[in-house]
């Protein structure tokens, strides 16, 4: 039973990632709990770190479609915690196609999803915020250490 649950939960997360790549908001809605929470743990200044509620996150994601043509999330690897088959760890890369052809954005991600009763309840995303800032025209200043 535990192996089957692990595989099912990984497939749910895979479906969510596929939904992002296709901008399939209806498909994502079907596998997100109504009280879904999304956290960008290392979001740079100016970006919201936490979204509460499925509809709140979907509205945010839909707003990105004017900026991002496709997220192109790839090289997806999934695993679950040995102690909890409902916690899915995902690693992947992005190579986004942006509406501004003069800009490009790639990054690497480590994410933690929590799946309960067939729905994603929590999604934590870890990425390199400096790469995000500089890709969209911002700057990062090297600190003076020592």
TrEMBL record:
Residues 13-122 form the SnoaL-like domain. Pfam families: SnoaL_2. InterPro entries: NTF2-like_dom_sf, SnoaL-like. Coiled coil: none annotated. It comes from the Bacteria. This is Nuclear transport factor 2 family protein. It comes from Dietzia aurantiaca.
């Amino acid at each position: 039973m535990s192996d089957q649950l692990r595989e099912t939960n990984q497939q749910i997360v895979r479906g969510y990632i596929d939904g992002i790549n296709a901008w399939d908001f209806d498909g994502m809605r079907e596998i997100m709990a109504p009280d879904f929470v999304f956290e960008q743990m290392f979001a740079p200044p100016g970006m919201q770190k936490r979204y509460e509620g499925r509809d709140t996150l979907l509205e945010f994601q839909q707003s990105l479609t004017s900026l991002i043509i496709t997220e192109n999330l790839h090289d997806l690897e999934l695993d679950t915690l040995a102690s909890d088959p409902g916690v899915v760890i995902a690693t992947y890369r992005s190579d986004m196609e942006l509406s501004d052809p003069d800009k490009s954005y790639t990054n690497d991600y480590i994410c933690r999803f929590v799946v309960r009763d067939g729905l994603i309840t929590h999604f934590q995303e870890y990425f390199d915020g400096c790469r995000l800032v500089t890709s969209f025209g911002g700057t990062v200043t090297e600190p003076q250490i020592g």
